[in-house]
Every structure is written in C-alpha cells, then in structure tokens.
Amino acid sequence: MGVFIIAEAGVNHNGDINLAKKLVDMAKECGADAVKFQTFKAEESTGLFAEKAKYQKENDKTEESQLEMIKKLELPFENFKEIKEYCDEKKIIFLSTPDGKESLNYLVKLNVEFIKVGSSEITNIGFLKAIGDTGKPIILSTGMSTLGEVEKAISTIYSTGNKNVRLMHCTSDYPTKVEDVNLKSMITLKNAFKVPVGLSDHTLGFESAIAATTLGAEFIEKHITLDKKMKGPDHKASMEFSEFKNYITHIRNTEKLLGDGIKKPTEKEKIIMKDARRSILASRNLKKGTIIKEDMFTFKRPGYGIKPELSYILVGRKLKRDLLKDEVIMWEDV
C-alpha cells in the first residue's frame, strides 16, 4: 500500500453538515484515502477568556474570542454519525479528532478506525491515557513539541497497554514556511520510537509532500476547503479541489518514481538495450573456417549479439560461415 492520504476537512464546514458532506465528496473525488473532521464541544476544550491564536487572528479578522469562534464551527455530535454513514456510502474512511473525553467516547461508539490526536494534546496526560484505554490505533500529531515531550506522550499511551501508535511530524503554523518544516524531524521520530511516521502538512505547495514521500512517510494529512475565500480560521491555508487533486497526483507520481528498489532493466529498456548496447562484431571480412583472434573482432552497436564481456570465449573458436566487416557475430556462427 502507498502513502495513506488524509484530507483534513477539520472545521472548514463552518458548522454546516451539508458543507461537511461536500468536503467528503471533494476528498473522495480527489483520491484521498480518508477524510478527517474535528469532533468537539467548544466549552470542553476552550476557556471563556482564551484569545484566538495568531494565525487565527490573521485568517479571521473578526473581533471575537477563540471560544466564540470555535462555537460557530461546532457540529452536534449526532451530525458525525450522519457524516460517517455518508463516508461509508462514498467508500472513504471517516476520521475525526476528539477534543475531550466526551467527544472521544462518542467517536469510539462510531467505531472509527483510528483516533487522530491533535498536537495540542501532546502534554494532556490524562486525555492521552483515556485515548490509550480505547485500544484504538492512534495517530499522534507532534506540532509544538520537543522529543522529550513526545517520549512522555508515547510512554503514557503505552502504559495503557496500547502499543498501536503512529507519529505525525507537524509544524503548527498556518501556513508553514518551507524553512520551518524541518522534515528530517520525521526521520528522528521514526528512529527514536521505532513507529510508523507521517506528515501533517501546512505548507502552501507540493514540495513537502514529495519530500516526505521520498523520506518514507506512511501517511500525509492536508487541509482542504471548498473555497479559500470562505470565512473561518483555516480556509486560507487549505487547498481547493484542483490544487488538492494535483497534490495527490504529486504524491502518487513520487511513489511511482521511487519504485520497488530492485535494480533491473524495465521491459522498455530491454527493447532499447538491443539498439543501445554493444555486441561483438567482425573487425574485417572473415572466411569460414577462420580461427578467431582478438584483432578479428570489435565492439559496436547493435546490442543483440554476444556481449563484449564474453569475448574471451570467442578467441580460438572456428567460424562456421563467412562474415562481413561490422557483421554481428552470433553464437551459432562459431
């Protein structure tokens, strides 16, 4: 199986289930393997006096608190049951990130395949234990964290007996500048914890996905939107339909470029080989019965005759027929 591609719909439905379903359609049509949302109750994750994050202020100019903003992006829990059923119908995997124990328990009841844990929870030890206790496979994002914090988070999950953890390298900046991606950290995570790794990509282009695929990312997550001009904190750093479709094409083409690692000629190369490689040719006109010496042959194209490396076998053999200069010597000729 190739890179597992997650279309991060997040809160780009703007609190509208019909927009959420359109994001599912978009993810499926673009070729994503899964579409991910965020299941939460605003009061469960955000305090009354919490200010919006810097990127949220830049992407959404309204003068409101983070709680007020998030409240508008909230979908009722029962909507996610309907969205999951819609995903099942469309044959795309439904995923969602819980923001608290209530949303976590609801997603477990929906029988999600993975629990995707956001970067903001990396130090939320009690919540990580609850996630581990579900027994579900876990994808843990590691934005804003140190290696030591990741180690503590993994140890917390492992302490529940749940060892089915994948790590997602992430830079929690929207959009992320290329110089801040630090993709080698993904390899550091893989080597340090011996788990599958991937990338949560918040850059604006395709380069991070190509590089991550080349470095062995097993899954890549990317924000999608129906329209970057829509109001909301994440739309501007997300990809619209044609952009995301191209994004996936870049990943799949990179996988094809990487191949299986076995060094061998392709079927087309085997055909080209006959014209491009050299064979053993007569260096002058030779008569039937001639005992072949080294000065009687040369190495030229085409390549369908005896390989030059086997020339030593020809020396001392007798010709069965006349040969013209530059004629290819075949085994049946000696």
Automatic annotation (TrEMBL):
Residue ranges occupied by any AFP-like domain in the UniProt entry: 279-334
Gene Ontology biological process terms in this record: carbohydrate biosynthetic process
Database matches in Pfam families: NeuB, SAF
InterPro entries named among the record's database cross-references: AFP_Neu5c_C_sf (IPR036732), Aldolase_TIM (IPR013785), NeuB/NeuA (IPR020007), PseI-like (IPR051690), PseI/NeuA/B-like_N (IPR013132), SAF (IPR013974), SAF_AFP_Neu5Ac (IPR006190), SAF_PseI/NeuA/NeuB (IPR057736)
Domain of life of the source: Bacteria
GO molecular function annotations of the record: N-acylneuraminate-9-phosphate synthase activity
SMART domains attached to this UniProt entry: SAF (SM00858)
Span of the signal peptide: none
Protein's recorded name: N-acetylneuraminate synthase
Protein's organism: Clostridium taeniosporum
Gene it is expressed from: neuB
